[in-house]
Amino acid sequence: MTKMKLTIIATCGALSMLATAAQAAVFRFSLGNAGEAIWQIDTRNSPAQEDSSGLTYARVTGAFRDAGASGVDIDFFSGTADPAGGLRLTDVDSGAGVWYSGPTLFTGTGQSLAFTIGTFALTDVNDGSSTLLSISDVTAAAVPEPATWLMTILGFGSIGAALRHPRRRASAPAAA
Fold first, then answer.
1. CA 69 – CA 85 distance, rounded (Å)
2. Could you give the CA distance from residue 134 to residue 120 in angstroms, rounded to a whole number?
3. DSSP state of 146
4. Less Cβ around it within 10 Å: N or C end of the chain?
5. Is residue 162 within 8 Å of 156, Cβ to Cβ?
6. 135 to each of 3, 98, 118, 120, how far by Cα in Å?
7. What is the distance between the alpha carbons of residues 97 and 80, in angstroms, rounded to a whole number?
């Protein structure tokens, strides 16, 4: 292949990598055996607070037993907090809440934040009762944006055109 063809192919490949869609995860949480609380968190939305003790999502809406209309603040504790993991749910309207100790339920920070998938045993800090928390990933498959499709089609078209129509070289005049 000529140097020009290789340059076109490399450029199209680089542009197609730049046009990929960003992927974030949506996690579904189900607390308690009787559906005591069910909510979702999209990791594209940054936590309201994030520090060495954990992170807080403010005014989360979902199906919470005995919660007001404004939602619930949810604190997730990391291994450096006291307790060393688990979560706390606080009703925004009344200030009432419940605190569960258990394992650390997330990894990473900021844009690399991810929740751990699975079912976890939690213990109510106030009365010592046990409950289960299930976390699942419900992220839908990413659909490329129209600009991504356009870049892909143009890239393949450019490669096809470059391969189909080779550059013509000037031929030397025939000797007499």
1. 27
2. 6
3. H
4. C
5. no
6. 52, 18, 5, 8
7. 21
- Per residue in 42-64, pLDDT (tens digit) is 888 888 888 888 899 999 988 88
C-beta of residue 77 within 8 angstroms of C-beta of residue 54:
yes
Tens-place pLDDT, residues 12-21:
555 555 544 4
Residue 136 and residue 105: Cα distance in Å, rounded? 12
Q: Could you tell me the strand order of the sheet in which 62-64 lies?
A: 49-51, 54-60, 72-77, 87-91, 97-101, 118-124, 130-137, 26-31, 37-42, 62-64
Token pair 């929740």: residue:
115
- Residue 88 is encoded by which pair of tokens? 């706390």
Helix H or strand E encompassing 60: strand 54-60
